[in-house]
């Protein structure tokens, strides 16, 4: 349990807040590149409680600027994309992608006033299907060479989805390895051959055991957590009756990202990005170590479950997440269908917009959550003391750029000597990879 004050400290993200100041020191997903694939590439972005407009100018370069015009506050989303910038539709002030006002067509001829006018703007970079923004002070940090960034575009698919809750409870489901045995339980196993693009439906490691069965039959993982240069690594051990152990390696990448195995071929790197205090988006990069990603199929699978343009899930609180008691009895643990995203969405939204952590009771399986909260509190203290370089991946730039991986894998090993097994399985996968995935 924590105090209300502590809960506010860790969850609130607006400008000037404690957690918000930590999040602003890292690149944040602002949009999918797909969203800008329109005749008029201008989209609204609400990020960390700030209302912004993302646009691609006529040179093809991206700009992320304040939603409100600094003249008299009109909405820049309805601006005209022309003449090297985005031009406010009220009096025609034109702003380039850096936020500089380059023209005020209604001011007297020869006026130089525009030189002193800037609209708030943030640097943006596009990486493998996601547009990232840096909203913090000073220079942005370099990107680490995570697999999702190191892989070529052909091997990465990006998507996102809206969840109606605070970012922290959304992220915390990703560092809670025990829930997969319950929330995502399938009472029957499907053929793993039909598992493409889906999580927890492949075979476990090199065996013929479906992941669904393994998770169902071994619900008490032994969870080990260690701090790393990028955040933390979680190793969940499920000791099986036959003397073997299932080793699942997942990661928290500071501050709000997880990296987990999806299948033997793919991993998911997933950001839990605050829209504001009470809403967040998950942004995922699905990275393949095997074949190029079938983006058409993966997009189709996910578009069936989401509504555009806001990527809101079609199953949601308003329709009870599709809850069906017959299905809950016979097919799934939740009765909410086979898409595990819906299960996670229900779990985190059903806590309330901001989970009341003054009422919670953490158990042994919550060891990752406890450690993460300590890391976030330490980061908040360091920011307050001006020691930004003490935060993960905010120290020496070369060290940050050299961070690779992280290893995210399901492996099966003899219980004796499991410690080496996941490193070996991962090494084998990387050595056979078509792109340079060496660590
Ligand atoms: S309010 Fe935007 S130009 Fe006047
Ligand atoms: Fe989950």
Automatic annotation (TrEMBL):
<keyword id="KW-0411">Iron-sulfur</keyword>
<dbReference type="GO" id="GO:0046872">
    <property type="term" value="F:metal ion binding"/>
</dbReference>
<dbReference type="InterPro" id="IPR036922">
    <property type="entry name" value="Rieske_2Fe-2S_sf"/>
</dbReference>
<dbReference type="InterPro" id="IPR045623">
    <property type="entry name" value="LigXa_C"/>
</dbReference>
<keyword id="KW-0479">Metal-binding</keyword>
<keyword id="KW-0408">Iron</keyword>
<keyword id="KW-0560">Oxidoreductase</keyword>
<keyword id="KW-0001">2Fe-2S</keyword>
<dbReference type="GO" id="GO:0051537">
    <property type="term" value="F:2 iron, 2 sulfur cluster binding"/>
</dbReference>
<dbReference type="Pfam" id="PF00355">
    <property type="entry name" value="Rieske"/>
</dbReference>
<dbReference type="GO" id="GO:0016491">
    <property type="term" value="F:oxidoreductase activity"/>
</dbReference>
<dbReference type="InterPro" id="IPR050584">
    <property type="entry name" value="Cholesterol_7-desaturase"/>
</dbReference>
<dbReference type="Pfam" id="PF19301">
    <property type="entry name" value="LigXa_C"/>
</dbReference>
<feature type="domain" description="Rieske">
    <location>
        <begin position="27"/>
        <end position="133"/>
    </location>
</feature>
<protein>
    <submittedName>
        <fullName>Rieske 2Fe-2S domain-containing protein</fullName>
    </submittedName>
</protein>
<dbReference type="InterPro" id="IPR017941">
    <property type="entry name" value="Rieske_2Fe-2S"/>
</dbReference>
């Amino acid at each position: 349990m924590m105090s209300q004050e502590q809960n506010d400290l860790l969850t609130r993200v607006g400008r000037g807040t404690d957690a918000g100041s930590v999040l602003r020191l890292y690149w944040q997903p602002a949009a999918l590149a797909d969203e800008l694939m329109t005749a008029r590439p201008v989209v609204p972005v609400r990020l960390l409680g700030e209302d912004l407009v993302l646009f691609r100018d006529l040179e093809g370069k991206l700009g992320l600027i304040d939603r409100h015009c600094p003249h008299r506050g009109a909405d820049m989303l309805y601006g005209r994309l022309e003449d090297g910038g985005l031009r406010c539709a009220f009096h025609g002030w034109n702003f380039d992608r850096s936020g500089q006002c380059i023209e005020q067509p209604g001011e007297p001829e020869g006026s130089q006033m525009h030189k002193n006018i800037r609209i708030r703007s943030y640097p943006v970079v596009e990486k493998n299907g996601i547009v990232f923004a840096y909203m913090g002070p000073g220079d942005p940090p370099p990107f680490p060479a995570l697999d999702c960034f190191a892989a070529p575009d052909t091997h990465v698919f990006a998507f996102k989805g809206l969840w109606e809750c605070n970012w922290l409870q959304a992220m915390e489901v990703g560092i809670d390895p025990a829930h997969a045995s319950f929330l995502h339980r399938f009472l029957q196993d499907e053929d793993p051959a039909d598992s493409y693009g889906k999580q927890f439906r492949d075979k476990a490691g090199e065996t013929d055991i479906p992941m669904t069965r393994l998770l169902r039959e071994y619900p008490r993982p032994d969870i080990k957590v260690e701090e790393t240069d990028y955040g933390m690594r979680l190793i969940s051990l499920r000791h099986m009756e036959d003397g073997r152990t299932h080793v699942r390696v997942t990661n928290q990448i500071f501050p709000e990202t997880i990296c987990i195995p999806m299948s033997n071929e793919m991993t998911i790197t997933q950001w839990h990005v605050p829209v504001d205090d009470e809403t967040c988006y998950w942004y995922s990069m699905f990275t393949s170590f095997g074949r190029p990603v079938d983006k058409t199929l993966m997009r189709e699978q996910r578009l069936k479950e989401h509504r555009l343009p806001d990527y809101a899930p079609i199953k949601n609180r308003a329709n009870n997440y599709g809850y069906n008691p017959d299905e809950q009895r016979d097919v799934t643990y939740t009765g909410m269908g086979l898409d595990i995203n819906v299960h996670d969405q229900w779990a985190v939204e059903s806590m309330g917009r901001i989970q009341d952590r003054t009422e919670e009771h953490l158990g042994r399986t919550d060891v990752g959550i406890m450690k993460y909260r300590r890391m976030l509190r330490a980061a908040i203290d360091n920011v307050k003391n001006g020691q930004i370089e003490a935060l993960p991946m905010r120290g020496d730039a070369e060290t940050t750029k050299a961070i690779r991986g992280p290893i995210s894998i399901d492996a099966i090993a003899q219980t004796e000597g499991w410690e080496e097994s996941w490193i070996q399985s991962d090494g084998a996968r990387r050595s056979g990879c078509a792109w340079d995935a060496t660590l």
